[in-house]
UniProtKB/TrEMBL annotation:
Superkingdom assignment: Bacteria
Pfam families the UniProt entry points to: Terminase_6C
Stated name of the protein: Terminase
Organism placement in taxonomy: Bacteria, Pseudomonadati, Pseudomonadota, Gammaproteobacteria, Moraxellales
Keywords: Viral release from host cell
Gene3D superfamilies: 3.30.420.280, P-loop containing nucleotide triphosphate hydrolases
Origin species: Acinetobacter wanghuae
Keyword Lyase assigned: no
């Protein structure tokens, strides 16, 4: 009989690297797997084998038919285009209860379990069932909220018995190519040794996938810029175009400095009710080291109290947002800046904020100048939020620093002291026609 009348049963043969990811499936310490791999590695191909196995195990482990098996991608259109045909190849007709539903992209198995292809564009519509197994393809392009608000809770109720042992919780495999330092980086890090106990992550280059000849890689290298090549073919997390503090490098700008008893603290501060933030620097010669941070405090009095409690004996200089001279956070008579002064801090602020561009330029120049020298360092253990914001804040569609993604406040705080102490513009001493009070730089 020809192959046409006798279709293959959908079994696939995996490459060694695909097999490694596959073998970690359904292990307790790998309930959340992340495979971050280069383009054409064979990620979606692996998904076929994973879906087949989930279909078999759902029947074998007596999983409730209310708990479904899903392949998801950023949009339904994309999920259908990329996977629906492959899914029908992977799940042979002899396993199916009837014809696949072409509109909804579902296959019901003889066991009663449902396999579904979904898009995460309208993720609110997905609520309703439980999940036994989930694949998220192109994870870096999916919305984090889809995972956190909808998919993650759907995985948590599934119950099944493996070799007499009751287990609770469906499993997930997130696959994709990186896109800067976004949520895909976070979940990848969760799966690295020493991090989360139920996560396991893998990273392979396109070449390791074995589906692209080396000659193709050489051509790509010749045509692409180094960062894009590393991201797309080597699955490397790169700070991508549009990142504001592009000179920041977590490794090269790393600091092991901490606050010492005699240090003078230079604290940058941004005023936002319920989202007050501050970054604490110490100075070492000509270099600045971010060594502590305060995140999401309620208001200026709460911030003052927190700083005084943590650093009761240090000499403290605060470099705030200049608009705090007008803004009144409590009562009618005190501005934020007067509160800081009354608290006994030395306050260093010009009458207006420097242009945002100047602040960004002086910070990037301190992070790495054209001679390759770095003078601004961040202790990432002590300032995890500041480091993350430096890596992730981008320009919006109007060319302004993005304020929607929540990475703006820490960067505003952390850059006020730098712009004040190390301005790019060389200031001329004012000609004193009428003597005006000068603000002394304070080290
Ligand atoms: N184990 C395998 N055996 C045979 N062919 C494979 C295997 N793995 C992948 N391929 C083939 O390699 C090509 C790339 O695979 P796939 O589409 O799964 O890669 P991908 O990593 O998802 O790519 P992209 O980055 O474009 O999403 C496809 O033609 C696929 O059929
Ligand atoms: Mg793919």
């Amino acid at each position: 009989m020809s192959q046409f009348f006798n279709p293959p049963d959908g079994a696939v043969k995996l490459t060694p690297k695909q097999a490694n990811i596959y073998l970690w499936g359904w292990q307790k310490n790998a309930r959340f797997r992340d495979a971050v791999c280069g383009r054409r590695f064979g990620k979606t191909f692996l998904a076929k084998a994973e879906m087949r196995r989930a279909a078999r195990l759902a029947a074998k482990w007596n999983v409730s038919v209310e708990d479904e098996i899903w392949y998801s991608a950023p949009t339904f259109k994309q999920a259908k285009r990329v996977f629906w045909k492959r899914l029908k190849q992977a799940i042979p007709p002899s396993w199916r209860a009837g014809k696949p539903n072409e509109t909804e992209c579902t296959i019901t198995l003889k066991s009663g379990h449902v396999i579904r292809v979904v898009g995460l564009d309208n993720y609110d519509d997905l609520r309703g069932s439980g999940l036994f197994f989930l694949i998220i393809d192109e994870w870096a392009d999916c919305k984090w909220a889809a995972w956190e608000e909808v998919l993650r809770p759907m995985l948590s109720t599934c119950k099944y018995i493996v070799n007499g042992e009751q287990r609770v919780g469906g499993h997930v495999l997130r696959i994709g190519t990186p896109k800067g330092f976004n949520h895909c980086y976070d979940t990848f890090m969760d799966g690295q040794p020493g991090h989360e106990p139920d996560c396991r992550s893998f990273s392979y280059t396109s070449l390791q996938g074995g589906n692209i000849p080396e000659s193709e890689i050489i051509v790509a290298k010749r045509k692409m810029d180094p960062k894009t090549f590393s991201q797309e073919y080597e699955a490397s997390f790169e700070s991508y175009q549009g990142v504001i503090y592009y000179c920041y490098n977590r490794v090269l700008n790393a600091s092991t400095e901490t606050v010492q008893p005699n240090d003078t603290l230079h604290i940058g501060m941004d005023f936002n009710v319920t989202k007050m933030s501050a970054v604490v620097y110490v100075r070492r010669g000509d270099t600045m080291h971010a060594v502590d941070e305060f995140v999401d405090l309620f208001d200026t009095p709460a911030m003052i109290e927190a700083i005084k409690e943590r650093y009761p004996k240090h000499s403290i200089g605060v470099y705030p947002d200049a608009s705090g001279d007008n803004r009144k956070s409590v009562g009618a008579s005190y501005t934020d800046i007067s509160l800081l002064k009354n608290a006994g801090f030395n306050v260093f602020v010009n009458t207006t904020n420097p242009a945002v561009k100047d602040r960004i330029n002086s910070t990037n120049g301190m992070l790495c100048n054209t001679l390759g020298s770095r003078r601004l360092f961040v202790n990432t253990d002590k300032c995890p939020r500041f480091a993350k914001c430096l890596e992730r804040q981008i320009y919006d569609d109007h060319g302004q620093p993005d304020k929607k993604a929540g990475f703006d406040h820490m960067n505003d705080s952390g850059t006020y002291p730098i712009a004040y102490l190390f301005p790019i513009k060389i200031k001329q001493d004012p000609i004193e026609i009428n003597p005006i009070p000068t603000i002394n730089r304070w080290n």
